[in-house]
Design brief:
By secondary structure, the chain is an alpha+beta fold. Among the domains are: about 180 residues, BirA Bifunctional Protein, domain 2 (2-Layer Sandwich), CATH 3.30.930; about 90 residues, Rossmann fold (3-Layer(aba) Sandwich). Helices cover about 35% and strands about 20% of the residues. It has an eight-stranded mixed β-sheet with strand order 4-5-11-10-9-6-8-7. It has a five-stranded mixed β-sheet with strand order 14-13-15-16-17, sandwiched between helices. Helix 1 packs antiparallel against helix 4, helix 1 crosses helix 12 and helix 8 crosses helix 9. The relative contact order is 0.12. The structure holds one RNA strand.
Length: about 450
RNA sequence: GUGGGUGUAGCUCAGCUGGUAGAGCGCUGCGUUGUGGUCGCAGAUGUCGCGGGUUCAAGUCCCGUCACUCACCCCA
């Protein structure tokens, strides 16, 4: 250890790659626990896919994905190899890897196949608040062979509604639409460019109805057609009332009928099983082309400007090997984005920065074995604890606990009869206790996730 | 990718028209010879992001560069 210490390289954060402090991580882990438990409560098994996919598969979905894909190369790769060719890239969502996984394992999976997947994903875009280059997503999807029953489109948002109800966050609203509604509606009024029109209407929240009207007319719509599109997009109901409102616009098309029926099933299921969680919102489009039926977007009440924390939809061709097509429906929570907001705004904190509920004090180094035995006894009954690092003055040991938010300090042999005592350092109350029977109040056993109104 | 802002102690920041590096919080010790939080006293901590230039002299002015950050685009 006598190397002359080289000047330490300055450490700097890397933009878009967030790292939490222990107290924040406790909040994140709580969220992940709730998400996982709820997914499993609904019978979803878990898979994990590798972090990399072949670049051509990542780019295969088309669009402008290429800019956001991180390539993975070996630093020692031959320099005379074609440096421009990167074989592997980090996945930028969990849907593309899942589709590949389904194809690869089709012979060994039972269909309809459902799974959940909670993993990091990477996107090489400019980060800003709530948008990162490395972040965690939690997905559920159901995929079948050839045909996928539509009831899954109604069941999948119930899982997310249950998660949002359990988490100590505000009110989450899952907004649902069915692409067949605008598609049939547009065709019914003589618009042919369905996706182009959807893309424009999708900007409604950002630019407002006047601009959308103008953009639609620029794209070739008559002003009557544009007005009709805006009238459809304005419909939003938390019950089946949207059907009547669409009918009142007087447009007829078989695809429109299909869409209204499908969305009605979703909303009805929501009303029965997760009252208040779902709302039919006919302006929800989702920019991505591959959604074909139901689409979901989720907003946190009071933070609508933060956009969607949880979205997804139905794909009629999630995966295809050329002979067989696998339709699917899925929905995904942006865990990092949600936490980034809630922690960043100080709306959530953990009651302590460690799982330890008890600090077992050490009287002197000769007493450490006794303290360790006490800790072992507490742990054997599920009480998280740690032993003090040094036999410092008790004031120091108490302060060690206080700094970390550990609520109890255990004093070996402090009782009048030579037995132990445990002190609640918040109240100062100190009582006789035995390590083989003492139990903290249930709310102290684990760190609490505290919500601050803000 | 385009445009703005900011880089000084562990953190938040001050530092004027260039003249020897500061505060608060936090941290350590003591008051308090084994039960914290309050209070008082004492103390430690800096490649002033990096490189170059101007100058007798640069945290300060100029050029470059890097990083972080905000907005646009797009998404979770």
């Amino acid at each position: 250890m006598n190397t002359p210490a080289p000047r330490a390289a300055r450490v700097t954060p890397i933009s878009g790659f967030p790292e939490y402090l222990p107290a924040e991580r406790i909040v994140e882990q709580y969220f992940l626990d709730v998400i996982r438990e709820t997914f499993e409560l609904h019978g979803y098994p878990s898979i994990e896919t590798r972090a990399v996919e072949p670049v051509d598969r990542l780019l295969g979905k088309g669009g402008d994905a290429d800019k956001e894909v991180y390539g993975v190369t070996r630093l020692a790769a031959d320099e005379d190899e074609d440096a421009g060719e990167v074989e592997f890239g980090l996945h930028f969502d969990l849907t593309v890897p899942f589709a590949r996984y389904v194809l690869e394992n089709a012979g060994r999976l039972s269909f309809p196949f459902r799974r959940y997947q909670i993993q990091k994903v990477w996107r090489g875009e400019r980060p800003q608040e709530g948008r990162y280059r490395e972040f965690t997503q939690a997905d559920i999807d159901v995929v079948d062979v050839g045909e996928l029953s539509s009831h899954y489109e109604a069941e999948i948002p119930l899982v997310m509604a249950e998660i949002f109800a359990k988490l100590p966050i505000g009110r989450m609203t899952i907004q649902v639409n069915n692409r067949k509604i605008p598609e049939g509606f547009y065709r019914g009024i003589g618009i042919d460019d369905i996706t182009g029109t959807l893309r424009i209407v999708d900007k409604l929240d950002k630019v407002g109805p006047e601009k959308v009207q103008g953009m639609l007319e620029e794209a070739g719509c008559t002003s009557e057609q544009a007005e009709q599109c805006l009238a459809l997009a304005a419909i939003r109901t938390d019950d089946l009332g949207f059907v009547e409102q669409v009918r009142a616009l007087g447009v007829e098309h078989p695809t429109l009928d299909e869409g209204l029926e499908a969305l009605s099933r979703v909303i009805r299921t929501g009303m029965e099983n997760a009252p208040g969680a779902l709302v039919a919102d006919l302006k929800i489009a989702r920019g991505l082309d591959y959604y074909t039926g139901t689409v979901y977007e989720t907003q946190l009440e009071g933070y609508e400007s933060w956009g969607s924390f949880c979205s997804g939809g139905r794909y009629d061709a999630l995966a295809s090997d050329g002979r067989t097509t696998y339709p699917g429906v899925g929905i995904s929570i942006g865990v990092s984005r949600l936490l980034g907001l809630l922690l960043g705004k100080g709306l959530l904190t953990a009651s302590r920065s460690t799982p330890a509920c008890v600090l077992v004090a050490v009287n002197d180094e000769e007493g450490r074995p006794e303290s360790t035995r006490i800790a072992t006894a507490l742990r054997s009954r599920g009480v998280p604890c740690e032993v003090a690092p040094k036999p410092a003055k008790f004031g120091k040991q108490i302060r060690y606990a206080e700094r970390r938010g550990i609520p109890y300090v255990w004093f070996p042999g402090a009782g009048e009869d030579g037995g132990d005592q445990v002190k609640d350092i918040r109240s100062g109350e100190q009582v006789d206790a035995r390590p083989d029977v003492w139990q903290p109040p249930a709310e102290d056993l684990r760190p609490q996730i505290l919500r601050r109104e803000g």
